Amino acid sequence: MDISAIIFYIISSIIIGGALLAVTSLQIFRSAVYLLFSLLGIAAMYFYLENNFIAAVQIVVYVGGIVVLIIFSIFLTHNSGMALVKPKPKKVFFSALAVFVALILTLNIITQYKFIPENKIAISSDIRNIGLQMLNIAEFGFILPFEVVSILLLAAMIGCIVIALKRN
Amino acid sequence: MREIGIEQLLVVSTILFFIGIYGFITRRNMVTMLMSIELILNSVCLNFISFNKFLHPDKLDGIFFTLFVITIAAAEAAVAIAIIINLYRSFKSIDIEQADELKY
Q: pTM for this one?
């Protein structure tokens, strides 16, 4: 087993272990911190796949933005340190059963399917290529979704302010 | 031990997806449900990146989809947290089973 495979398995165990603890922990703040580890593991996986820009975006947006937002909302809505309500054992059993069956089915399909890689010249996924193609108005450019997403972000920002505004 | 290919990455993202589904079903707290949704979205992003990397290395489309998913996830988390804080003001709780009334 070469070093690359060992690194891959370490990163995957961080991702999956963090995710498992995040969905089962009964302390909500710990749950958020485990989520943070899982998201950092995903960013490490993007570095492993040589997508440096996506990894940087993942760290900035998820770790720096969303998890901080979640922790803020935990502090605003909880007495910190209060344990969560334990889910009913029946519910846990049946959800775990359903998820397990679906997982086995999907893994079965994935391992049996023969993926055929295209033997084409790989294009470098550095920030220059990404920026040039994203803001391209020719064919295969992504300028229209880019603008639509910017309007969506503006709408989300205004919507948040309107929803969370204190009325008296 | 085989070399790391697309199958191993898809296995990791599938496990992550179903962990997110499990959390979404079993949790009753809205903030933890939001965390499960983030896990699901992340597994989808990982899928896009690995398909782009191993099956279509001559294109960048998977990267663009991942960028848009991350953007929309950020917007969604912000709106969801605004709604959660608003619900907490009216119900003094963010348990999903106690928030059973609409405006009227």
A: 0.90
